[in-house]
Design brief:
7-stranded parallel beta sheet, Rossmann fold, 2 domains, globular
């Protein structure tokens, strides 16, 4: 069996998407020495390509190879560059995310991973051109795909209900944490991270994109109402503040409450530093209004950091008893629960223990085994 996988996100600091594809490929390489894999990317820099090969652990794997197909436009790559290659060099299965390629031979069975369909519920978060593109091509892609995969039961149900997809065509696997979260960060690693990212001594932590559905202005407002009762505590928001979908309300609420020196933006946190930054935090807060999964919840649990999450179905599914939940539309509820976690040692210890217990449920190896099973069943079918 010859499997092609779209790995364009790997090496591009794409947060969740990159983490998922990186770990799936890495663990497929660990469990499968029989099938042939072609890993497709648009990266041409040989230094970056070599780094990807080494990090994936496929440097000495004869059944894994990276194929670089240069193209400056991601849409042209998907609709022309890649299909042109696959018509000449077909694979048995091609796995991508969201938009499936056009003009690919019918004998190539396509799997697409849909992380979430937030664009249907929060359309103003996306550039108009991207929204039009998704609205047109996602339904076509779901129809073309032989199998649709999601990252939670919640997202599976959302896709079935919204797009009327047959139950048997769609399945889900759970995400997990990267290997660098497999142990607690050391004091030395935390000290280096503190210096590198200019972190305060005590802080509430968030990491991810800064678009509107992440509800960060709400978190800042809740923090503003409680900060005088938590002396010395700062709010650290990690992510790309310069991204095109940055929520401008963040700056407005910081200005409103004069929090310029209380809210810290360290920027993008390198993957190798993330566990140390999590470990330094006294509390991790994830105030999102909509998620497909929520890997940062598991990352915080791995570093024994109490987790406070918005009470939405997907985060309930992921964390269960491993987090304390708040109403993402009631500022007072979030403020109160931040204060309670900081001042109740028994609550903090209970959240740490329940987080450790919940974390055992997730494994990239399990996810890779499930996907390999899906490959085999598609070929048999």
């Amino acid at each position: 069996m010859h499997i092609g996988i779209d790995i364009r996100n790997i090496g591009k600091k794409r947060t969740g998407d990159e983490v998922v594809f990186f770990n799936l490929v890495k663990h497929l390489a660990l469990i499968d020495s029989i099938n042939e894999y072609s890993l497709f990317t648009d990266i041409t820099d040989t230094t970056i390509l070599h780094s990807i090969v080494v990090k994936l652990g496929v440097e000495l794997k004869n059944n894994f190879k990276i194929i670089s197909l240069p193209c400056s436009n991601k849409f042209v790559w998907n609709f022309w560059t890649l299909p042109k290659y696959l018509r000449r060099n077909p694979v048995d299965i091609y796995q991508t995310q969201y938009i499936t390629p056009f003009f690919v031979p019918k004998k190539v069975k396509i799997i697409t991973i849909i992380h979430d369909i937030s664009f249907n519920f929060f359309p103003r978060l996306i550039k108009l051109l991207d929204l039009i593109f998704l609205k047109i091509f996602i339904p076509i892609s779901l129809k073309r795909a032989e199998k649709i995969l999601t990252v939670s039961q919640f997202t599976r149900d959302e896709i079935i209900n919204y797009y009327h997809i047959p139950n048997e065509k769609i399945d889900f696997f759970y995400n997990s944490i990267s290997d660098n979260f497999s142990k607690l960060a050391t004091d030395q690693e935390m000290a280096l991270a503190e210096k590198k990212y200019n972190l305060p001594e005590k802080f509430i932590f968030y990491i991810g994109t800064m678009q509107l559905r992440k509800n960060l202005f709400f978190l800042i407002e809740a923090f503003a109402k409680i900060k005088n009762r938590l002396p010395g505590v700062k709010l650290v928001l990690a992510g790309n503040k310069g991204a095109h979908n940055y929520d401008s309300q963040i700056d407005m609420v910081i200005k409103k409450y004069s929090l310029k020196n209380e809210v810290i933006f360290p920027g993008f946190i390198d993957e190798q530093d993330k566990s140390a930054v999590f470990r330094k935090a006294q509390l991790f807060c994830f105030p999102s209004l909509y998620e497909g999964f929520g890997i940062p919840l598991l990352e915080a649990m791995s570093q024994e950091v109490p987790v406070l999450a918005s009470d939405i179905p997907s985060l309930r599914e992921v964390a269960e008893k491993g987090a304390l939940f708040f109403n993402p539309k009631q500022v007072a509820d979030l403020s109160e629960k931040i204060y309670n976690i900081y001042n109740d040692e028994n609550l903090r210890n209970a959240l740490r223990q329940s987080g450790r217990d919940r974390l055992r449920f997730f494994s990239w190896e399990t996810a890779a085994e499930k996907i390999l099973n899906i490959y085999n069943n598609l070929i048999k079918k």
